[in-house]
């Protein structure tokens, strides 16, 4: 499932954080803009997708569920 792979990618990029489904990466100040760019790059490579530049914003990266939804939508 995409969610588990996405979680693994984030854990590889940010081994310093403990990720739960409801962890709020943006609202809790865990991710900065560099983290988002790194995650987008890793997701694009892993899933063979191209995330729309308009969706590279905090609202799409706040929780694991938000990121999973973005990846699923980008696969279509």
TrEMBL record:
Limits of the Carrier domain: 1-75
Gene3D superfamilies (alphabetical): ACP-like
One Pfam family hit: PP-binding
Protein name as catalogued: Acyl carrier protein
